[in-house]
Amino acid sequence: MSQIIRRLGVAPRYRGSAGGGTCPDIFELADGNFAVIGTDVTDSLETQLPDDAGRADYERIVVITRETLVKAKKDIPDA
Fold it and tell me: pLDDT tens for residues 7-17?
């Protein structure tokens, strides 16, 4: 099991979340991968995936706000 080592971007409360814990988020994991908290839109977007894209049964399509990604940009490694 991987471990979260840091948040990319700012905490949800700095992006307007009243409760501070109900917004999309992006985390870097100890193994170099990233974890994303977003809205599950698998059912509505799966049929729109390009022909060369696929989703395993254990994968979900999630949406994060543009602001979440833009605020995280400075923390995303170049390589």
Answer: 999 888 887 77
Length of the chain: 79
Query: By the 8 A CB rule, do 75 and 8 touch?
Result: yes
Task: Return the half-sphere exposure (C-beta side, CA atoms, 13 A cut-off) of residue 62.
Answer: 16
DSSP type of residue 67: H
Cut 0.70: pTM above it:
yes
**CA–CA gap between residue 43 and residue 60 (Å, rounded):** 9
Distances (CA, A) of 21 to 11, 66, 69: 8, 17, 17
